User: Fold this.
Amino acid sequence: MVIYGVALLSFCMVLGIILGELLGRLFGVDANIGGIGIAMLLLIFLSDYFKKSFRLGDITEKGITFWSMIYIPIVVAMASKQNVLGAIDGGLVALFAGGIAVLLSFLMIPILSKIKK
Assistant:
């Protein structure tokens, strides 16, 4: 059922937020460090694990896949908006560093696609 996908998403989100807060405290920062990224990775790994380890019904598997596919683009869009606003407030150096990171990511696409073949 689709509800299992929502339950898995909720579990990953809560655990990711808790781990992100713990990382923030560990590094002495009053912020969540990587909680959403941790939640995304947990969602990917756990959904793959459940598909391989258990005999899930077709509807259950579709529910987990649906929420896995919906969650990641939404979070990436939200994070990118925050990063752009932070970069504008941070000044020209932050914008330059972000542009370099995007350029390097685009340059890695042909290299990674050749490795996959």
